[in-house]
Specification:
Blueprint lengths: L12 E5 L6 H11 L3 E3 L3 E2 L14 E2 L2 H9 L3 E7 L2 E6 H9 L3 E5 L2 H11 L3 E7 L3 H11 L4 H15 L7 E4 L3 H16 L8 H9 L3
Parallel strand pairs: 1-7, 1-8, 2-7, 3-4, 8-9
Antiparallel strand pairs: 3-6, 5-6
Bound molecules: guanosine-5'-monophosphate (5GP).
Length: 213
C-alpha cells in the first residue's frame, strides 16, 4: 500500500545567494540542522581557510593547480572566480544525493547560479538573501573581522554587484531576523517539494487509490 510520505520525489537543488555579510551562512547552518533531507554541497576553493573552518565540512581547500585539474577533468558542476579566489561545485556528490531523492543546498554566487540554472533549470530553486539595510550590511561585514580591512572593503564593493543580480532569483528574503528568514526558506522548500512535476511516484500512488484509468 502506497502512502503519501512514500511517494518517490526527484531531489531539488536549493541555491542561496547573497552579498557577504547578509547572513546566508547562518541561515544555511540552521536549515541543515532542522531538515533531515537536505545535504550541503561542499565547494572546492583556492581561498585559504578562515579560523574555525574545517576541510571537507566548510570547503575543500585546494591550490590553483588542483582546482584547474578538476575543471579540466569535467568534475565541476559550475565554477567561478569570486574576488581573487576560485570556487567550484564538485559534481559527483551532488549527483549521488539527487539520485537518492535528497535535496541539495548550494551556497554559490550569481555566476554559479546562472550556470546551475543553464544545466538544471527544472531542479533548481533559487533564493536571494538581502540584508535589511546598507548600514546593517556594513556593520555585519566589519563585525565579522575575520578578514583584513582591505578584504572587507573589497567585499563591500562587490556586494553591490552581487545584489544587482537579485532579479534573476525565484525568491527574495530580506534577512531582518534569522529565525524568520529560516522559517521563510523552510516554507519555500515545503511548497517546492509539493510541486507536481517533482512527484515522480505520484502516478503509482494514484493508481493504487483509484485503479488503472
Ligand atoms: P566565502 O569566501 O565568503 O566563503 O565565499 C565568497 C563567495 O563565494 C560567496 O558569495 C559564496 O556564495 C561564493 N561561493 C562559495 N562556493 C562557491 C562555489 O562553489 N561556486 C560559486 N560560483 N560561488 C561560490
Amino acid at each position: 500500500m502506497n502512502n503519501l510520505t512514500d511517494i518517490q520525489r526527484r531531489g531539488l537543488m536549493l541555491v542561496l545567494s547573497s552579498p557577504s555579510g547578509a547572513g546566508k551562512t547562518t541561515i544555511s547552518k540552521a536549515l541543515l540542522e532542522r531538515d533531515g533531507n537536505l545535504t550541503l554541497s561542499v565547494s572546492a576553493t583556492t581561498r585559504p581557510p578562515r579560523p574555525g573552518e574545517v576541510e571537507g565540512r566548510d570547503y575543500f581547500f585546494v591550490d590553483k593547480n588542483a582546482f584547474d585539474a578538476m575543471v579540466a577533468a569535467g568534475e565541476m558542476l559550475e565554477h567561478a572566480q569570486v574576488f581573487e579566489n576560485y570556487y567550484g561545485t564538485p559534481k559527483k556528490p551532488v549527483e549521488e544525493a539527487l539520485s537518492k531523492g535528497r535535496d541539495v543546498l548550494f551556497d554559490v554566487d550569481w555566476q554559479g547560479t546562472q550556470q546551475l540554472r543553464e544545466n538544471a533549470r527544472d531542479d533548481l530553486v533559487s533564493i536571494f538573501v538581502l540584508p535589511p539595510s546598507k548600514e546593517e550590511l556594513e556593520r555585519r561585514l566589519f563585525a565579522r573581522a575575520q578578514d583584513s580591512e582591505d578584504v572587507v572593503k573589497k567585499r563591500m564593493a562587490k556586494a553591490n554587484e552581487e545584489m544587482s543580480h537579485h532579479s534573476e532569483y525565484d525568491y527574495i528574503i530580506i534577512n531582518v531576523d534569522i529565525e524568520e528568514s529560516v522559517s521563510q526558506v523552510q516554507s519555500v522548500l515545503t511548497a517546492e517539494r509539493l510541486k507536481l512535476e517533482r512527484l515522480v511516484g505520484l502516478r503509482n500512488f494514484i493508481t493504487d487509490m483509484c485503479g488503472e484509468r
